[in-house]
Amino acid sequence: MKIYASAVEWQSWAVLGRHLRVHLRKWHTALLPPVAEPLVMLTAFGLGLGRQMQGVAWNGRTLDYLTYLAPGILAYTAFMTAFFQALFTAYIRMHFQKSWEGQLTTQVRLEHVIWGEALWASTMATAYAFMVCVVMAAFGAAGWLTLHWEWLPFTLPILFVAALAFACVGLLFTAMLPSMDHMSLPFFLVILPIGFASDTYFPLPDLPGLTQVAQINPLFQLCHGLRALLLDGVWSGRLAAAMALCLAMMLLLIPLDMRKLRRRVFGD
Fold it and tell me: Residue 163: its pLDDT value, please?
């Protein structure tokens, strides 16, 4: 239980604060991706591709594609940002910048460094999700998107928890990959399978076995839960399922991350 309790100790939050201070020094350049990406995605796919489609069947009714896509982009942003922050950025700090070595010369222990990286990844994912919400609100103000806007702020704490679980997956690859040359492997092994089996961009076809496998995909449950919340204003069991899957991932992966990263850093 000690490794889980380390998440709330001041050293873990000190690591998070350090990453935040470094990030704020370049906020003017770091602000562009979280704004530009959802703007391009919702415009190109939601408005551009959506006008070439008759509509998307979801939950017994037909939606225009932009309305269907927006909650999925919100969930996918949290997933992608957390995973890549815990993979690329953490790996660079560990291997090239030697930031971990410097932190470990202080009162910070390795479990605090790892929790700090996970918390930072989920914080960045939530910040990116917030920017997606801003872009979605702009689309709503233009009359292109209609959602239950009163529930939009409640998605952020949900996405923070989900992003923390996705960060644990990214840290596992940080511990396992031998070099930067292997960074494409998680993309094909994790990002593509989880992303395309999640109802993010289109409803999954009703194929034997596919629906059953998708039930254990936390991103699939998260997309469905956010759509029910933002389109129908309903707190569905999908969100509870997504949170349960994410908590299970954290319980299983945090000890594994700690063990493998200790071996990677200290050679134990």
Answer: 97
